[in-house]
Each structure stands twice: as structure tokens, then as C-alpha cells.
Design goal:
The chain is mostly beta strands. The chain is built from 3 helices and 8 strands. It is globular. GO terms for molecular function: DNA binding.
Length: about 190
């Protein structure tokens, strides 16, 4: 792949991560995806080691890195995944949330995690975070949504203290003259 010119970055939305990258990887389509987002067991590496394993479009990025992660053997047998590394552990935060397509359909599930250095439960919280995405597909025979477990897509990043959100979309801010509050509405593409 060519090097991107200054100002151009690989910055996919959550919808693009699930509907394009994760679905194509699960369906074994488009082998070039491996150059953009490599297959890596994130839990076998310390978070600060992950940037050197990222795909071609994320080299030099100081904010975020993407990886496909295979399901662990213990998960296949019905157990919980091991999220420990040599120096710490990834801890899930909050409840899993849904990822929606632009037409309002649920296409995936997102789990957020924070890396702690040390042993649980006395580890020290770091600025390393991860969003783990799993795809949801419709079962055509029963029209029931099914969560795909065999592969997930991870976005690893360092909290910078910026208020900027990862899944940015055009937002229009208008000031209400009656109460002085700012009303924010999200622009939808038709």
C-alpha cells in the first residue's frame, strides 16, 4: 500500500469496523484487510508493544491501533478468556453496548476495557484502553440475530485527555436563545 499523504489518516467509524472490516474477515473476503488490520492475540502482548504490530495504515499513528483477535482456546471450550499479560491485565468496564448501522440496525457488540498494571484486584489503572467489537449476523433460516464469537476486532488506544470521540460524525450546534443552552443534533446522510 502507498504511504498516505499528510493529513490523511485511517480513522474508521464503528459501523465501518464491524460492517466492512470484521464482516469481510469473518467471510474470508478481501485478503488485503490483513495488511490494514493484522491478526494478533492482543492478550499475549503488553499494550505499549502493540503499536509495532499494527497494520500498514496505522504505522506512525500515536492515537489508535487495530487488530483482529482470534477466539482463545479456553473460550471454545466454554470458559472465560484470559486477559492477563506479564505485567498486568485488561479489565472490562461498564456493560457491553450495541453498534448500529446508519439505518439503525444492530450490527455488533462493543465491550470496553482498561489496562491495569499489577495483579488483580490491586492493579494500578493506566491510560491504555481497548474496544472489542464482535459482529452480529442474521440467521437466514430463523431470522434471529447471532453473535459471531470466532473472531473479534480490537481498537487499542491511549487516553489523551481530549474530548474528541472516535466515532465522529458531522454535528451541528445551535444555540437556543431562550435558555442559553446549546442544542446538538446529529446530521444524518440520506
Amino acid at each position: 500500500m502507498e504511504e498516505m499523504p499528510p493529513g490523511i489518516r485511517f480513522y474508521p467509524t464503528e459501523e465501518e469496523l464491524v460492517s466492512f472490516y470484521l464482516h469481510n474477515k469473518l467471510q474470508h473476503k478481501n485478503n488485503d484487510i490483513n495488511r490494514v488490520i493484522p491478526l494478533l492475540d492482543v492478550y499475549k502482548h503488553e499494550p505499549w508493544q502493540l503499536p509495532k504490530h499494527c497494520g500498514e495504515l496505522c504505522h506512525g499513528d500515536s492515537e489508535q491501533w487495530f487488530f483482529f483477535m482470534p477466539r482463545q482456546e479456553r473460550e471454545v471450550r466454554g470458559g472465560r478468556p484470559s486477559r492477563t499479560t506479564a505485567s498486568g491485565y485488561w479489565k472490562a468496564t461498564g456493560s457491553p453496548g450495541y453498534v448500529y448501522s446508519s439505518d439503525g440496525k444492530v450490527i455488533g457488540v462493543k465491550k470496553s476495557m482498561v489496562f491495569y498494571q499489577g495483579k488483580a484486584p490491586t492493579g494500578r489503572k493506566t491510560k491504555w484502553k481497548m474496544n472489542e467489537y464482535r459482529a452480529i449476523e442474521q440467521d437466514l433460516s430463523t431470522s434471529t440475530p447471532m453473535l459471531r464469537h470466532e473472531l473479534s476486532l480490537c481498537r487499542v488506544y491511549v487516553v489523551s485527555g481530549s474530548f474528541r470521540a472516535f466515532d465522529r460524525r458531522p454535528i451541528h450546534a445551535t444555540e437556543s436563545s431562550s435558555n442559553g443552552n446549546i442544542n446538538i443534533t446529529q446530521k444524518t446522510d440520506n
